[in-house]
């Protein structure tokens, strides 16, 4: 969740949603393809701000009434109550939660009892669909067996551990606080608690050799997690890394180096039984059901509905997007005053929604159904269909799937994903 919020239209003080939202949710249910509903809870606290991070995070424990670590959960639960009121007033049918994701920041800086309160409050207000996935992001320094046991008793099903690397000098460059030795302890404690485990990695850090990256991948595979995410380092403007690159203190990322590291990740993870399902994500899938995929992330990639709780959190409901005040103090103050924390919203037009659907779908192993262009302009529809032959010839998409009307990236296509999008859309 980037720290900079977009501009948008004003939001009514009571947060009421435009009329089409409720109608679209009802129509989707009536069609037999109901829109799922999920919850994202942003915990904005960190002990240090990593040099590469541009998320909306704060290192201070006291950010004002209702916004400090000690009382933040009460404010988040107040937004859950607000969400219930807004959905009812907007005539959006009640839906059980499909997934819950508590992210940050570092959620596990809060006591496990606080995170448990959030999960219980969400269940009390919305209910949980059978088999709902409930995930918590964790820094390996901040969890132990007792902490993870308490999360599991609260109903949490999955923990996503920010490993990033198994190499000390890479962790030091990233300004991560944990040591490699903490990772296996956290993973073992999570498994002992009965939680699914995902490990997050970053590749392409300045000074990381190919051997360093191989070492991290082999360490991950040795821990046998259920799921692995591997993200290329992006140097964002406004971050410490961004300033250091601009001043020449550290080198910028090397796209060729990152491509080679991606290929190594896919090779080693594939050989160890992990199947890619999104460009940056792999999961164990011994029975072919995809049960270990990160279902909450699929909510975003498949354009489903979610409510985002917390400062700067974004929400999406049936085509309408809205976002909360960025600073925790401003966020808490609005809720304390009985005003919606949302400060902007937008309803993307057909062209913007098509762009988003194409960008997201061509990152998935299920690919893009070319029928999405049926409602585009005749010229755009014609261009998209004519571009397919070139994409096949360049080896960027699976030929057999493309001939059946579905664009699925090859391994090379995953590396050149942006090119697939540009060629399909003609820009």
TrEMBL record:
Any GO CC annotation of this UniProt entry: cytoplasm
Signal peptide residues on this chain, from the entry's feature table: none
Highest taxon above the source species: Bacteria
Chief location of this protein within or outside the cell: cytoplasm
Cytoplasm recorded as keyword: yes
Radical SAM core domain location: 31-275
Single GO MF descriptor: 4 iron, 4 sulfur cluster binding
Compartments it resides in: Cytoplasm
Transmembrane segments: none
GO biological process: porphyrin-containing compound biosynthetic process
A Pfam cross-reference name: Radical_SAM
Record-linked InterPro entries: Aldolase_TIM, Coproporphyrinogen-III_oxidase, Elp3/MiaA/NifB-like_rSAM, HemW-like, rSAM, rSAM_sf
Alphabetic keyword roster: 4Fe-4S, Chaperone, Cytoplasm, Heme, Iron, Iron-sulfur, Metal-binding, Oxidoreductase, S-adenosyl-L-methionine
Coiled-coil intervals, chain numbering: none
Family statement: Belongs to the anaerobic coproporphyrinogen-III oxidase family. HemW subfamily.
NCBIfam families linked to this entry: hemN_rel
UniProt function note: Probably acts as a heme chaperone, transferring heme to an unknown acceptor. Binds one molecule of heme per monomer, possibly covalently. Binds 1 [4Fe-4S] cluster. The cluster is coordinated with 3 cysteines and an exchangeable S-adenosyl-L-methionine.
Protein name (database record): Heme chaperone HemW
Organism of provenance: Micrococcus cohnii
């Amino acid at each position: 969740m980037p720290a900079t919020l977009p501009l948008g239209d004003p939001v009514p003080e009571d947060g009421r949603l435009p009329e089409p939202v409720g109608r679209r949710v009802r129509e989707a249910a009536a069609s037999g393809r109901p829109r799922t509903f999920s919850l994202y809870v942003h915990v904005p606290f960190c002990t240090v701000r990593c040099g590469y991070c541009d998320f909306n995070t704060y290192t201070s424990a006291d950010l004002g009434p209702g916004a400090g670590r000690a009382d933040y959960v009460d404010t988040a639960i107040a937004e859950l109550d607000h969400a219930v009121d807004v959905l009812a007033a907007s005539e959006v049918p009640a839906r059980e939660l499909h997934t819950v994701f508590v992210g940050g920041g570092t959620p596990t800086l809060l006591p496990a009892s606080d995170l448990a309160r959030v999960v219980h409050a969400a269940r009390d207000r919305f209910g949980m669909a059978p088999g709902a996935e409930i995930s918590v992001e964790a820094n390996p320094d901040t969890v132990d067996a007792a902490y993870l046991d308490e999360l599991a008793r609260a109903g949490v099903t999955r923990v996503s551990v920010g490993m990033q690397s198994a190499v000390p000098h890479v962790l030091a460059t990233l300004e991560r606080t944990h040591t490699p030795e903490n990772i296996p302890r956290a993973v073992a404690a999570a498994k002992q608690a009965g939680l699914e485990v995902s490990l997050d990695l970053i590749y392409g850090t300045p000074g990381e050799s190919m051997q360093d990256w191989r070492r991290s991948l082999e360490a991950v595979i040795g821990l046998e997690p259920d799921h692995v995410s591997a993200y290329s380092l992006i140097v964002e403007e406004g971050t410490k890394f961004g300033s250091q690159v601009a001043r020449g203190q550290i080198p910028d990322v090397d796209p060729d180096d990152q491509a080679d590291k991606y290929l190594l990740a896919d090779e080693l993870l594939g050989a160890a039984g992990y199947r890619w399902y999104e460009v940056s994500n792999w999961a164990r899938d011994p029975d072919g059901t995809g049960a270990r995929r990160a279902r909450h992330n699929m909510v975003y990639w498949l354009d489903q509905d979610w409510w985002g709780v917390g400062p700067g959190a974004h929400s999406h409901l049936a085509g309408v997007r809205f976002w909360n005040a960025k600073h925790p103090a401003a966020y808490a103050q609005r809720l304390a005053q009985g005003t919606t924390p949302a400060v902007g919203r937008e309803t993307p037009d057909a062209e913007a929604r098509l762009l988003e659907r194409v960008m997201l779908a061509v990152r998935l192993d299920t690919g893009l159904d070319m029928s999405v262009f049926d409602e585009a302009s005749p010229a755009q529809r014609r261009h998209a269909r004519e571009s397919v032959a070139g994409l096949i010839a360049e080896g960027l998409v699976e030929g057999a799937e493309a001939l059946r009307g579905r664009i699925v990236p090859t391994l090379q296509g995953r590396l050149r994903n942006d090119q697939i999008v540009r060629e399909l859309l003609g820009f």
